[in-house]
Amino acid sequence: MSDPLKASDTTSSTRRPLDPDVEGYLALLAARRSPRTVDAYRRDLAALSAYLAKPLATATVEDLERYTAQLRADGLAATTIARRAAASRGFFGHLQLLGARGDNPAAAVKLPRRPKPLPKTLSAGEAERLIDAAKGTQPRDLRDQALVELLYGAGLRVSEALGLDRAGVDLEGRLVRVIGKGGKERVVPIGRLAAEAIRRYQSRGRPYLDRRHRPELFLNARGGALTRAGAFLILRRLAEKAGLDPTRVHPHLLRHSFATHLLEGGADLRSVQEMLGHADVSTTEIYTHVSDARRRELYYRAHPHARRKPTEENGVDRSARGTDHGSGCGGGVADDEGRALEERPRA
User: What pLDDT, on a 0 to 100 scale, did the predictor assign at position 327?
Assistant: First the structure.
């Protein structure tokens, strides 16, 4: 059996036609999923086919378990292994629907647990710096500021923002109508600053870019529709100008920041779920953990009775004075008589 990593990395293995069963599944998938998803599934199924060196339709649970074990031994991340497993589950599920198989062997394979890190966000100040970095009077400056204001002010996915056309923006009502995942439409409110930025772009920026009479709201310098790659480059350039880490700033970071800042400001979870277009509220709940973590950190840094480490003043370790008030006391704060007040233990 061949190395699944090498098989997946070679262009020839992903470009040449796969067996008819796989090609039929991918053709059906193309009617329901994005081209990027179909390409990823094609690469994943090509890698599995190269590893097995036999028709995928004949694969067994043992075959897929060995493949998964090999991927783990090769050091692939749990998220990558899970994505490859999703491709094979979809393929065998397709065969089940056609009656070609009575089972789905991929469904029986145990996968490594995926860590669930909290989403990264910008602080409110960092978001303002990023927006300020886009200020200017040139058409592309006006476009960039409108894009950043929309990503941060409405929490749109980059595909949703770039898929907007001029008719989808209601500046008077301060609403945008977007098409989200699965072709679902939703209406999202935008703030005054975002509406003003879009109005400036539409009146003083976009006419100079619109050389091809395109319907899309956001255009590139040549008059075509702005692409995902173009949006990423814009944000990285603005991040560098704002003094932020360019590798850290991407469109989805602004979406994470939008949701977190709303919840920190008191917005209810259901409203944020609807604005983000999440089908399940549990997807939105992760942002409450981000808010909780940030509040805890602010508390530990700001409140004198919540300090994590004993403080030293005038070269004297105040933790040593805790013996007057019982053992195990942390650093304290001196009262009017110079005594150390006991730091209350954290729960």
Answer: 39
